[in-house]
Design brief:
Strands 29, 32, 34, 35, 36, 37, 38, 42 and 43 form a nine-stranded antiparallel β-sheet that branches. Strands 28, 30, 31, 33, 39, 40, 41 and 44 form an eight-stranded antiparallel β-sheet that branches. A hairpin with a 2-residue loop joins strand 13 and strand 14 (140-141). This protein has 507 residues and is an all-beta fold. The longest helix has 12 residues, at 2-13.
């Protein structure tokens, strides 16, 4: 019967409770002197918040304690089961420890100083917590404890304590002491105080540089839990500076400086980006010109694979609020095989007589996009019923601004792309940034189109080429159609582009 009871007790003591009960001292299976120190804590009890703790020896009465406690426990010599208990709303739980209490005749004259933290030889960051306790000091009941650093003065503490220590960087000897009636004792440990790690320097989504339109800059940091503080007035950022909470709008020349702050880290290095907004050049649009604004937000856009390109392609247009300038940005997701493309178009008005047009839009190319050509066209059905196609593209396939012409007749057209000799390649445009694109083209009554100039971010590329571009397509009289086409290169791929503040001017 005694053997079975012992086996049962050992099995009970090895079970793992469902609660987060932590017993710092004594350890399961420890041999202790009476009285001994019991240090325990918990936050949950059987998966619910703990409201109190307690303990008992074997099946004796329970002593109630708070959810984190240090108690001096007296027990008779011999083997015991120490019950460390918790209570929560409507429930209770316990952890069981086997302990052996030494008989008075075998009581040692040693001290039972226990240093729970830090471990000797560990690397620590100041301030660090010294956690220690004892019940005996050279065989006598401990009255108090204390500690000293590198042989310095002793700081007095109770017989169970936690103290914050802040020695300078380097290796130190910490003496943890106990005091009893007429005696004292100590244990020593070494610690290496090292500097805390440095938080990562904040990163900017947009590189420093010169721009001709307003930009939107996002900040990020690789350190978990880091808070970013920034300035835009030239002063160095501190924790009193504005706290970064979202993208920063850059509307004029600005220097953005930022620093990251995180618990357990020293402040990051200074991040700095300089953005120069220069006065751009632009088409000379007369004051009486008609215009249609925010075309990208108009309904009834059409998506079509362009059969004039090779391979195969598919695309989708959706509206998004990020990235955005107006709050209504069109997103174009395109997939293509080699040299194929998708044509996105919308009818934005009706006017058979206007002869001058400016295509004016903000374009964003997402990082990782593979683009061959970026085409931006305007089509108009003129008074004789024919359609004048003003097709113009930044062609990465030739590194040129290219325009189209009809090398045949309106009724028997032969479409050709012509290289202007003026360099352009969308692959060289900065990704994840807005680019202001403007194209000025005009036509005469004979269906000849003159491609005057293209502007990207306020930098003009004069074209000044004229080509016949009239087609008998049978479209509706006076229709005005804007196109935004994305083509792949030799290896195909995919792209994500955004279009915002899209305006068509005419006069």
């Amino acid at each position: 019967m005694k053997i079975l009871l012992s086996a049962f007790m050992a099995l009970a003591c090895s079970s793992v409770a469902a609660s987060a009960i932590t017993v710092a001292t004594p350890a399961n299976g420890a041999k202790v002197n009476s009285p001994f120190s019991l240090v325990a804590s918990t936050s949950t009890c059987a998966s619910v918040p703990a409201v109190s703790m307690g303990y008992s020896i074997d099946s004796g009465p329970s002593t109630i304690e708070p959810t984190s406690f240090s108690a001096t426990v007296t027990a008779t010599p011999g083997a015991h089961v120490l019950h460390v208990k918790c209570w929560g709303k409507g429930t209770n739980d316990q952890a069981l420890l086997n302990i052996t209490v030494a008989s008075p005749s075998s009581t040692s004259t040693a001290s039972n100083i226990t240093v729970a933290s830090p471990a000797s030889g560990s690397k620590v960051i100041a301030p660090f917590n010294l956690v220690a306790s004892t019940t005996t000091c050279k065989g006598s009941p401990a009255l108090s404890m204390g500690y000293s650093i590198d042989g310095g003065s002793t700081t007095s503490e109770p017989a169970s304590f936690s103290a914050a220590l802040s020695p300078h960087l380097g290796t130190h000897t910490v003496a943890v002491k106990c005091f009893a009636q007429g005696v004292q004792d100590q244990v020593q440990l070494t610690v290496d105080v090292v500097p805390p790690p440095t938080a990562a320097t904040p990163q900017f989504s947009l590189a420093s540089g010169q721009y001709t339109t307003k930009q939107v800059v996002s900040l990020s940091d690789a350190t978990p839990g880091a808070v970013i503080y920034f300035t835009t007035d030239g002063s160095g950022p501190t924790t009193s500076s504005p706290r970064y909470a979202g993208p920063i709008s850059i509307t004029s020349s600005t220097v953005v400086q930022a620093v990251a702050v995180a618990s357990g880290y020293t402040n990051s290095g200074l991040a700095r980006a300089s953005y120069t907004i220069v006065q751009p050049t632009h088409p000379n649009i007369p004051s009486n010109a008609l215009h249609v604004d925010e075309i990208q937000a108009m309904p009834n856009w059409r998506t079509k694979y362009d059969p004039g390109t090779g391979g195969s392609a598919s695309g989708a247009m959706t509206m998004t609020g990020s990235p955005t300038l107006s709050g209504e940005t069109a997103q174009y997701d395109t997939n293509y095989s080699s040299y194929s493309g998708v044509l996105y178009s919308v009818t934005y008005g009706n006017d058979p007589t206007a002869q001058n047009f400016v295509y004016d839009a903000e374009v964003w190319i997402a990082a990782g996009s593979q683009i061959g050509n970026l085409e931006m066209d305007n089509n108009q059905v003129i008074s004789n019923g024919d359609t004048v196609i003003m097709a113009f593209q930044c062609a990465g396939t030739s590194n040129n601004w290219e325009y189209s012409k009809n090398a045949g007749t309106p009724s028997n057209p032969v479409v050709q792309w012509v290289r202007s000799g003026v360099a352009c390649n969308p692959a060289t445009w900065t990704t994840n940034a807005w680019h202001h694109v403007q194209i000025y083209y005009s036509r005469d009554n004979a269906g000849n189109v003159t491609y005057h100039s293209a502007w990207v971010d306020g930098v003009e590329s004069p074209i000044n080429q004229t080509a016949m571009s009239e087609f008998s397509l049978g479209w509706g009289s006076g229709a005005l159609v804007a196109n935004f086409q994305v083509d792949g290169g030799v290896n195909g791929g995919s792209s994500t582009l955004y279009l915002d503040d899209f305006t068509m001017w005419r006069w």
